[in-house]
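Please fill in the sequence for the structure shown.

STRUCTURE ENCODING:
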């Protein structure tokens, strides 16, 4: 061994050691690559969809068209439970939170009526009581979510037995839960959490925590509870690793044993999202009775009740890259347990992968140093092929998850480094040889010396943004009556026309999401009056859409107009390049983005096409705004005060708007005071609005049903811009 070879081996072994230590530390990038690899395996060989007794009763778009917007009154859910129970459902599990009283209950609705007799009020039906009575004595499992507030813990309807050390610190932590209505809590046969990936930074649901823990008590998830209730079991049996505390290896529920991670998580082995898994809730609740195929699907099945409606925001991403309703993942977890097709990553997998890096790296260093580059390359390719073949075979035939990328990546780095060193040393030796012997040897001989081995033994930032979401109303109905290419043509015409106004007002188009637009202002460059520019863009979109409808630009025919909803919010968000190293987008994320999206959704409830938050309204002074009340947006603990955008600064300065603004102020004051004058004020406001802005008619029509949105808020004289 020459001195150069010895140095090369030492350098190679140091690199191998560094890569081994790096893999032992398991940084985020390696974890991401490993998870993406396992996702790809599932895409190549997804779990087959078997005919198992598991169904999803889906509150889909068709159901909402039939029975009205969500949330439904709970007496309707009671009817759903009765129908499913009569059809022989083994279990009915709700992937729905029942934390608040039913606002559609007659008793709740009439409570706000001035002068109602309390005795009469008590005799009115209460939908929560009706729902509680419907689930009593039936195999119904209710769900609870995680909360950052309060100290509520749901009751646990089952017992836990352990083998090995106690596992209370193994599962993800439960600090607080969303409370269940007491009458529902006591009558449910089981209660399980519905969280699919709490605390995970990834949008892809790869593992599901079957248990949560508060340090003293374990809480099962919805799928686990549904399976327990279906079998009539009363206890979960948890197996832990011998002499290793806070570790779970297996959970037994009745006749089924489930291998889990040390934290009690189930690796999801998902199948294609097929229609066979779903039953529309509208078909179950059909007035003429459920069809025979629905009865056959429900009978003897574990039934999960949830929603696939896009507006209800319960859409998750699977390892197959599909966006599916969250409830279907609970159903898939039970299917996986029933089928016995599990994925697992053994405790010793980490050690095996680390050892493989050390061994393969050492072999590559030796091969690259002492044999020809071609042989070394062949060894590297052999190691790569062996790692891929072993990992794929283990997945396909045993459901074992071994990472092939870490050994392959480490082998590539080692081979590249060792080869680079070898060529650097060779080039240095050739330069020495040529310099030393160039005067003494013929060119042909010098070439031979140079090419004969050992012939001569020589020594993303945070900033304030204004976010806009635009969405087409009734897009599902529009797309149902159009051919696919016509849907594309419609969207291209509409989105092209609307998005121009974002660019014209110095905004940034973030993305098109189906029939929606997301845009933001004040990034990547500063825009001083970004809230006002966003409002101007929204007003321009309104005018453009009106022109397109007037000239029938979409070809739908006379009277068939297209409507949109626009939500705008201003606040702090994180903006920058996001995604993978080879494919990224310049985008914004944060709570401000979520609030803007939910304000857009609130347009449906308010009955107006452009709504802005109080934060935006306060910075877009001079525009014609009307207070729309304070609405509870999904995911927000407090209500959000919203304003409808009637027009620009010119309209705001007109006498007509000043008169409407004054009448609107008195109407809002009357609503806050629950004054009988509110009806008179409402009529006056409608009269003023009809002459000024016909689009306000629906806004005022719905205000009569939204009195609660103005209770407990500041008086109208404190409104923005007044």
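FILLED IN BY: designer on duty
SEQUENCE:
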């Amino acid at each position: 061994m020459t001195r150069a070879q010895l140095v090369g081996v030492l350098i190679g072994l140091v690199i191998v050691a560094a890569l081994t230590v790096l893999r032992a530390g398991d940084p985020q990038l390696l974890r991401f690559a490993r998870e993406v690899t396992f996702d790809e395996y599932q895409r190549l060989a997804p779990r087959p969809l078997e005919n198992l007794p598991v169904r999803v009763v889906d509150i889909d778009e068709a159901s909402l068209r039939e029975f009205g917007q969500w949330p439904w009154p709970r007496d309707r859910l009671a009817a759903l439970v009765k129908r499913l129970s009569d059809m022989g459902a083994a279990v009915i599990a709700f992937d729905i939170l029942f934390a608040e009283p039913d606002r559609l209950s007659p008793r709740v609705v009439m409570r706000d009526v001035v002068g109602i007799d309390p005795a009469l009020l008590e005799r009115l039906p209460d939908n929560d009581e009706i729902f509680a009575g419907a689930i009593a004595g039936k195999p119904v499992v209710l769900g609870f979510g995680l909360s950052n507030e309060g100290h509520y813990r749901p009751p646990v309807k089952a017992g836990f037995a352990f083998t090995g050390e106690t596992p209370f610190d193994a599962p993800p932590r439960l600090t607080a839960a969303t409370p269940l209505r007491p009458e529902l809590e006591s009558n449910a046969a089981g209660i399980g959490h519905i969280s699919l990936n709490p605390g995970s930074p990834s949008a892809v649901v790869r593992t599901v925590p079957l248990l949560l823990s508060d340090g003293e008590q374990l809480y099962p998830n919805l799928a686990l509870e549904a399976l327990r209730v279906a079998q009539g079991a009363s206890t979960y049996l948890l197996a832990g690793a011998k002499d290793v505390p806070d570790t779970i290896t297996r959970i037994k529920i009745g006749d089924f044993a489930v291998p889990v991670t040390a934290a009690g998580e189930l690796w999801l082995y998902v199948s294609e999202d097929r229609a066979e898994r779903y039953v529309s809730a509208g078909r179950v609740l059909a007035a003429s009775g459920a069809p025979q195929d629905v009865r056959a699907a429900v009978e003897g099945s574990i039934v999960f009740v949830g929603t696939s409606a896009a507006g209800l925001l319960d859409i998750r991403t699977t390892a197959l890259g599909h966006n599916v309703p969250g409830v279907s993942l609970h159903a898939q977890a039970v299917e996986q347990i029933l089928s016995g097709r599990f994925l697992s990553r053994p405790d010793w997998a980490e050690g095996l992968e680390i050892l493989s890096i050390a061994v393969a790296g050492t072999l590559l260093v030796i091969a690259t140093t002492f044999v020809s580059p071609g042989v070394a390359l062949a060894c590297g390719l052999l190691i790569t092929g062996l790692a891929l073949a072993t990992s794929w075979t283990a997945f396909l035939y045993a459901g074992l998850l071994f990472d092939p990328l870490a050994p392959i990546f480490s082998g590539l780095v080692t081979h590249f480094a060792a080869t680079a060193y070898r060529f650097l040393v060779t080039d240095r030796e050739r330069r020495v040889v040529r310099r030393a012997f160039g005067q003494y040897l013929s060119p042909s001989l010098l070439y031979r010396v140079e090419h004969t081995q050992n012939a001569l033994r020589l020594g993303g930032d945070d900033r304030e943004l204004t976010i806009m979401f635009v969405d087409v109303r009734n897009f599902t109905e529009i797309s149902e009556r159009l051919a696919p290419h016509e849907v594309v043509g419609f969207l291209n015409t509409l989105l092209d026309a609307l998005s121009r106004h974002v660019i014209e007002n110095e905004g940034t188009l973030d993305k098109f999401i189906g029939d929606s637009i997301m845009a933001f202002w004040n990034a990547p460059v500063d825009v001083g009056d970004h809230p006002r520019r966003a409002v101007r863009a929204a007003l321009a979109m309104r005018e453009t859409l009106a022109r397109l409808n007037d000239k029938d630009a979409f070809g739908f025919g006379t009277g068939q107009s297209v409507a949109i909803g626009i939500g705008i919010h201003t606040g702090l968000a994180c903006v920058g390049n996001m995604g993978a190293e080879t494919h990224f987008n310049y985008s914004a994320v944060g709570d401000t983005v979520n609030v803007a999206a939910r304000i857009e959704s609130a347009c449906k409830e308010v009955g107006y096409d452009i709504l802005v938050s109080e934060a935006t309204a306060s910075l877009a002074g001079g525009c014609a705004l009307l207070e729309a009340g304070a609405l509870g947006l999904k995911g927000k603990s407090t209500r959000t005060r919203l304003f409808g955008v009637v027009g620009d600064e010119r309209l705001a300065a007109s006498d007509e708007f000043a008169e409407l603004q004054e009448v609107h102020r008195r109407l809002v004051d009357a609503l806050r005071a629950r004054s009988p004058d509110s009806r008179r004020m409402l009529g006056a406001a409608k009269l003023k609005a009809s002459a000024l802005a016909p689009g306000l008619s629906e806004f005022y029509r719905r205000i009569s049903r939204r009195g609660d949105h103005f209770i407990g808020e500041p008086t109208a004289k404190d409104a923005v811009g007044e």
